[in-house]
From TrEMBL:
<dbReference type="Pfam" id="PF00528">
    <property type="entry name" value="BPD_transp_1"/>
</dbReference>
<feature type="transmembrane region" description="Helical">
    <location>
        <begin position="258"/>
        <end position="280"/>
    </location>
</feature>
<keyword id="KW-0813">Transport</keyword>
<dbReference type="InterPro" id="IPR000515">
    <property type="entry name" value="MetI-like"/>
</dbReference>
<comment type="similarity">
    <text>Belongs to the binding-protein-dependent transport system permease family.</text>
</comment>
<keyword id="KW-1003">Cell membrane</keyword>
<dbReference type="InterPro" id="IPR051393">
    <property type="entry name" value="ABC_transporter_permease"/>
</dbReference>
<feature type="transmembrane region" description="Helical">
    <location>
        <begin position="152"/>
        <end position="175"/>
    </location>
</feature>
<protein>
    <submittedName>
        <fullName>Carbohydrate ABC transporter permease</fullName>
    </submittedName>
</protein>
<keyword id="KW-0472">Membrane</keyword>
<feature type="domain" description="ABC transmembrane type-1">
    <location>
        <begin position="66"/>
        <end position="279"/>
    </location>
</feature>
<keyword id="KW-1133">Transmembrane helix</keyword>
<feature type="transmembrane region" description="Helical">
    <location>
        <begin position="103"/>
        <end position="124"/>
    </location>
</feature>
<keyword id="KW-0812">Transmembrane</keyword>
<dbReference type="InterPro" id="IPR035906">
    <property type="entry name" value="MetI-like_sf"/>
</dbReference>
<feature type="transmembrane region" description="Helical">
    <location>
        <begin position="206"/>
        <end position="226"/>
    </location>
</feature>
<feature type="transmembrane region" description="Helical">
    <location>
        <begin position="12"/>
        <end position="29"/>
    </location>
</feature>
Amino acid sequence: MAAFKRNLTAHAFLIGALLCFSIFSWYPMVREFILAFQKTENGETVWAGWSNLTYIFNDPAFWQAWRNTLLFTGLALLLGFAVPFAVALVLNEFRHGRGYLRLLVYLPVMLPPVASVLLFKYFYDPGYGLFNRILESVGLPGQAWLQDTDTAMISVVIAATWMNMGGATLIYLAALQSIPGELYEAAELDGAGILRRIWHVTIPQTRLILSLMLLLQIIATMQVFVEPFLLTGGAGPEGATLTVVHLIYQYAFTFNNYGSAAALGLVLLVLLAGFSAAYARLSRAGSED
């Protein structure tokens, strides 16, 4: 009887999780797939075949959005992948006050995303923004950070990196603290400097968590929306910050073209799923070797 009750409780929790996934994850994906091949005419929904996909592929904004999204992903990985790891390396060297430093690093993650973005929008203001004040204090001209096509994207990347680096930093720090100290001692006895210790000890010992975080950050950055939407209005100057997810938003809520929005969402879903599957296969092959 006790075993039955225990199993019943376990199955109840499992059914609850399956219902949540079904309602909030699987059903929207299935509905999106169906909607991508439909269109609404005169209040009636009809099957559209491949016309939604043909429409988005022939839209110049489609290719511009993908270029901007890939550019954002590349820049965000240069900063958002390397900077948190470097910060974790520095924090790992502290022996006192590490808890306060972890809190300080994680603080931006605890702030509401809208508040963080609006804070950076104030910093980027060309008239009274903090960044231009700093430039002027050292004799450099101010910049139109969010209004210039040359600086709009990197400005969005900097804001996104500051907002999201706290979580990655703590994950890296936990991985670093799990490395046996004997490995570093052996490397020091062999005459290895700090850079060689990082290359030959730290990175190999944290390879799995580094590769997993790389995958998660690529998936997250490919779906960027909040930062460009609030900082530059979405598209930005001459479409410099138009991303794929914002183009989906435009199709759906600006042009009321839900079929094209679903079709573009389906393209993004297939691309990220294919990338994740390829990554998992390569990782499995690498671990077997």
